[in-house]
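step: validate -> pass
step: tokenize input -> pass
step: predict -> running
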Amino acid sequence: MAAANGVFNGIVVGLCVLTTLFLQILSNLANDYGDSKHGADSAHREGPMRAVQAGHITADQMKKGMGILTLLSMMSGLLLLWVAFGSEGLLLFLLFLALGLAAIWAAINYTAGNNPYGYAGLGDISVFIFFGLVGVLGTYFLQALALAPAVILPALVCGFFATAVLNVNNIRDIKSDTLAGKRSLPVRMGPKRARIYHLFLLFGGVLCALLYVVFNFHTWWQFLFVLVLPLVVVNGVNVWRKQTSSELDPYLKQMAITTLLFVLLFGLGQVV
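step: predict -> pass
step: emit ->
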């Protein structure tokens, strides 16, 4: 989006990617630690075996790993803000510093901490905000130092699809999460409504992409992302039909790959 509007900054984008990777790894380590601590990673869990659960690493070692990734996230994030704003944009620096600290808090406290918000069914909101709105709008602003209102639609695309990835995971884990007291949205809504919700997320992502192109049409290349629509349909159909955790598990990875391909083609279509 930044490149399409002539404000692309490769160094800023590289640091955004690095910071995001650190935050994602931190989130994964925290999830491994937190679900083991709170009982979601029990013998009843039907998803892939995790490190603490399998005994490959102790809980204390995992906490140390979380500490290292927290430090790396902060260092990378501070460097990113310095490159983007320099010494003159103090107010913006502080604002994005607060967003960065919120992202670190969200990554850790999804399942770790004394009152993990993921166990209260708030994980979808967090993913939608940080993977969608903050991720896209924040990265764009750090390059342009301004916000183009139309970029909100691509941000919603990423938010809907990232939340769909989480939703497949949570539908798969309904039984084990229920036993562990983890009240994810699928646990709260039940399997059928969770699948209707999944179709809503897929439809919402595709619709926002189409609306952006319609309202900002320049070339037919902007519809390049429609090549991925069959994969979106495949995911929706199979998440609706498959009932067991083992049957659903492959479509978690498939949804993540579909999201990656969708946003890459969407972005490419804006700049060619």
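step: describe -> The mean pLDDT is 91.
step: cleanup -> pass
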